Amino acid sequence: MSKAKHVSETPATQFLRKHGVAFTEHSYDYVDHGGTAESSRQLGVDEHAVVKTLIMEDEAAKPLVVLMHGDREVSTKNLARQIGVKKIVPCKPEAAQRHSGYQVGGTSPFGTRKAMPVYVEASVLELPGIFINGGRRGYLVGIDPRELARVLGVVPVAVGTPPTR
């Protein structure tokens, strides 16, 4: 496991501290399009426990956050059906950045610029611990997944599918 170097505060870490969430810091060398496979490999952790933060929108262009296991994809069709909207699509990078306040690849669900509903794959909440973006590329925080429900008011969904890669 790489030695965690301290990363300066981000809106995400400020949010976690403000809400009394205990977290560990995990830095890695960010690789463009490396995703959770790359971060989990560098940190020596199971990709299933690395949670990606995805900014999506419904047919009315209302943004929402989806938290998914790193080794799973989101079925947007199932998500739309479960939350009662016509369709869900991933936001374009510029829109995602505008909604979240974070650079794509460094998006955290904590301390987003806009308040958005947060949906989480239900099985994420059953893990003993997760690694999730801390608000900067190459920086994950380790937390107890139950804290997601406490500080974000997440809505559990079952929309994960095996990856197509």
UniProtKB/TrEMBL annotation:
GO terms for biological process: translation. Residues 37-150 form the YbaK/aminoacyl-tRNA synthetase-associated domain. InterPro entries: Prolyl-tRNA_editing_YbaK/EbsC, YbaK/aa-tRNA-synt-asso_dom_sf, YbaK/aa-tRNA-synth-assoc-dom. The keyword Lyase applies. It holds the Pfam family tRNA_edit. It comes from the Bacteria. Keywords: Lyase, Protein biosynthesis. Its EC number is 4.2.-.-. One of its GO terms (molecular function) is aminoacyl-tRNA deacylase activity. Belongs to the prolyl-tRNA editing family. YbaK/EbsC subfamily. PANTHER family: CYS-TRNA(PRO)_CYS-TRNA(CYS) DEACYLASE YBAK, CYTOPLASMIC PROTEIN. This is Cys-tRNA(Pro)/Cys-tRNA(Cys) deacylase. It comes from Pigmentiphaga humi.
